[in-house]
Structure formats: C-alpha cells, structure tokens
Amino acid sequence: MAKKITIYDVAKRAGVAISTVSRVLNQSPYVSDETKTRVEAAIRDLEFYPQANARKLAKREPQIISVAVPTFTTPFFNEVLKGVKDEIKSMDLDFIIYNTGSDNPEKHFEQFLEKGIPDALIIFSIEITDFIHRRIKDLPIPVILVGSDHPEYDYIYWDNYKGGYLAAEHLIKQGFKKIGMIRPHSISKISDLRERGFRDALREYGLPMDEDCLVSGITRKHAGFSEEAGHEAIQILKHRNKMPEALFCSNDAQALGAMYALKEMGLRVPEDVAVMGYDNIKISRYIELSTIDQKMYQVGRQAIQRIAAMFKDPDIAPLRDKVTPELIIRKSTQRG
Length: 336
Prior knowledge:
With 336 residues, the protein is α/β, with parallel strands linked by helices. The chain is built from 13 helices and twelve strands.
C-alpha cells in the first residue's frame, strides 16, 4: 500500500515549517505570495488532501457533510437537496454543496478535494470514473453515491432502465403507434439506460422505432436536460416533418419546453401530441403532466440517514439500494 502523504511531507517538499503549511491550508493572510505558491505546488505534486475537522472526526464528532452535485439549479436537484436539508436539520450537522458541473467533472472534483476533506461525502449523479475512484477510495470518511453505483461504495441509485420501459409501455397501452423521444445532449449511463428501456418496450410490443423521431435539442445547458432543449427538439421534429403521436421526454424540464413549443404551433396536448415526462417535479402536477416519479425528496433524506448510520457504526453492512420508479398518469397522455 502506498505511503500516506502527511503535512510533514508537504513541509519538507516546500522547505517550510509545518505551521506555515497549516497557515496556507487555512488561508491565513500572514504568508507571503512566494511561500504560498511553493506550498500549494508541493500539495499538488504530492496529491495531499488535508482532512477538515480531523480532531472531531477522530472523536467521531463529525460536523460537515459535503454534497457534490453536477448542478443545483435544476428542479430535480432542488428536490433532492431539499430532502438532504430537511433530514439534516434534526442532527448536529451542517452541509455544504459543491457544484462539479456537467462539463469535465473530473477536473472539478479534483478542485473540490483540494479544498480539504469533509467529515462525510455524498456524491449525486456523478459517474465514478477510475480517476474519481482513485481520489476517494482511501478517504477515511463515510462516502455514499446517489444516482450511480460502484462495488466499493455504499450507493442508492434509480432504476433508469425500468423508468424508460414504464414510460414507453404506458404510451403504447394508450394506443399510440408513432412514439418519439427527446434525448439529452450528452451520453451518460443514466440517459443510456432510460433510452434502452424505452427501445426495449417498443420492440417487445412490436412497434417500430423511427430514428428520426429521436431527437436532442441544441442548448447544452444542464447536458440538454432543460426547457430550452425540449423546445428546440420540437422545432427539429417539425423541420423533419416527423411529429409523433406521443413523445417521451428524458425529464420534466424538457417536457415543459416541448409543451410550450407545441402550443406555439397550435398543437394540443394530448389531443394532437401526447407528452410524457420524467422525474415528477413539483410543477408537473399543476400542468397535468404524466411522468415517472423518482422519489427524489425521499432519496435525499435517505442519503443523510445512511451517513448518520455510518458515523455510528463504521463497520455497518454495505448499502446497495435500487429505487423503483413509479408511473404517474395525468392528462398529458390521456386521449378520450
């Protein structure tokens, strides 16, 4: 096993006292720019990640839980983080949110760890690449994945394949024959599984898949899981003259944009085009959008409950939880 890098190694590499390294780590103003640059270079070269609140962790008195998310401005993550916030209120804990972004998450995750290691870490909907795995596998803190899975960590993830299957099956059972799909902009495990479930349902029920009816919007914000992308996808389908009878959107935000674009064209939902969403965000109920419920709020609370259990018993049996999605039927997919 590789030797664990300590603050002493950093001090030796930078040619400074341990107290100076400590000042740099704590962002003290009483360090010259030249010395600070030298210490920071040593930290990067040695891949030293200082642990925040080490004394309290040693006493099993954790304070801070870090939550790493690709974004916190979407309705999906707002709902998940609301569950985190509400559950943590009853504990003597606090949490900080770090936005890794959907673009180059490995780079942002590296920058996140350079800020210091918290008492626990929840990673939401970020694929655990080999690079990220190497950065977190030896952290002496509880780590839980939400929305992804890995054999070496506790995780809670959604059955995206089943969600995609349920969405397509519902539209098929409503009698629709020409069914399209709005996909996100970037390929990920989540989007791939939803599409595979969707395609498999069509195939099993004997319906053809017209590839021209599978479309992504142009806007790359939130990896294409956005209202703008949904609106643009409808414009593309109109340009192709491939408007389907029913449309499965990869999330509710896309569905909102799609429904607005259809209204602009004078098309009615569901009479002219049925629209199916995914996530069951709060607004979907008020616009009568059929969707797939992922129980985001409950999952946020469960993640904190699990971290609390790991604090109490570091040797607790691993958690491997798959959340089963639920079909929510509303007016947007019902004809007659």
